[in-house]
Design brief:
The chain is mainly α and about 300 residues long. The protein is about 50% helix and about 5% strand. The chain folds into three domains: about 130 residues; about 90 residues, no CATH class; about 70 residues, no CATH class. The chain contains 14 helices and six strands. Strands 1-2-3 form a three-stranded antiparallel β-sheet. Strands 5-4-6 form a three-stranded antiparallel β-sheet. Helix 3 runs antiparallel to helix 4, helix 4 packs antiparallel against helix 6 and helix 6 runs antiparallel to helix 7. It is flat, with a radius of gyration of 23 Å. The relative contact order is 0.07.
């Protein structure tokens, strides 16, 4: 895979684009892509190459070029034939922080969060708010009769779990199946930890990806209740704790990295390793941070 990416980089660099100068990167135009087919990936797309080049420039100490690559990638993302996620855009924010451009990082983060508010991804300049995998609602209605299947939602909250392993009608026109509830149809910040993908489903042709008993229509209309096992519930609770702990750690690390770089570890990963081992250096870091901040960050 690595050799393939290198070949792509070499081919694109030599034949079309200049990834090695600020002017060259800034002058890369917005491409006009053809739709991706089937399970195709965006590895040949210029925005994908820009992200790889950003990593390369960072390793070589050229943060100006690395940041320029990510700026250009973010500019292209909305016009791609691939649905890029908020985390892809946020790489620019992290690179700006690494380069100690904190005010600029905050501006970019605010801009990205506003763009993604209530959205899961941006595709061809439009927000994708549904959790339907790879297709628009119109595609599902026109091609699949408006039906989707919900997966075995093993990592979700009590409410979302009620809608696991069912066939739904997204527009309510197919009366055999229940109407798809908004809480799993759209991205919802109240359910940000739930993993609730939906898949287009052609009744009479497709088979569900989960087992069921009896008639599929009756099964899909069964009583709504939380059917998760004890292990699934614990797994979801553990995931939330881990994600919230990671977010808190990232907030703390960003704070000391900006305000007190002389005591901050070189990377967030390094800080997390210190914390996990509860090393003496970690304990000293917390005491020093509390002294400099005037308060205990983790007590708030």
């Amino acid at each position: 895979m690595l050799e393939f990416i290198k070949k792509v980089l070499t081919k694109i660099s030599s034949n079309k684009y200049d990834f090695e100068t600020l002017e060259g990167i800034q002058n890369i135009p917005i491409p006009k892509y053809k739709p991706l087919q089937g399970m195709s990936s965006p590895v040949n797309n210029v925005e994908y190459i820009l992200q790889k080049k950003a990593t390369e420039h960072k390793k070589n100490g050229r943060m100006d070029l690395a940041i320029a690559c990510l700026r250009k990638a973010n500019e292209i993302f909305p016009y791609s034939n691939f649905a890029w996620l908020e985390e892809d855009y946020m790489r620019l924010v992290e690179y700006l922080k690494s380069n100690r451009q904190f005010e600029e990082a905050r501006k970019e983060e605010q801009k990205i969060k506003e763009m993604f508010q209530y959205s899961r991804a941006i595709f061809e300049g439009k927000r994708i708010e549904t959790n339907i995998v790879g297709l628009s609602e119109k595609d599902v209605i026109d091609v699949f009769g408006g039906l989707v299947e919900s997966f075995d939602l093993k990592c979700c909250c009590e409410e979302c779990a009620k809608y696991a392993k069912r066939i739904f009608s997204i527009d309510g026109k197919d009366k055999r199946f229940p109407m798809l509830p908004d809480c799993i149809k759209y991205y919802n910040n109240n359910h940000k930890y739930c993993q609730t993908p939906l898949n287009a489903f052609l009744f009479g042709v497709d088979e569900p990806r989960w087992s069921y008993s009896g008639n599929l229509v009756d099964w899909s209309n069964r009583e709504y209740k939380d059917e998760r096992s004890k292990e699934q519930k614990e797994s979801f609770e553990n995931m939330i704790r881990e994600k919230e702990e990671t977010a808190k750690d990232k907030e703390f690390y960003d704070l000391i990295f900006e305000k007190f770089p002389e005591i901050a570890p070189k990377s967030f990963g390094g800080y997390r390793r210190m914390k996990a081992s509860n090393s003496e250096n970690y304990k000293k870091l917390l005491l020093k941070a509390e002294e400099l901040l005037g308060y205990n960050f983790y007590a708030n």
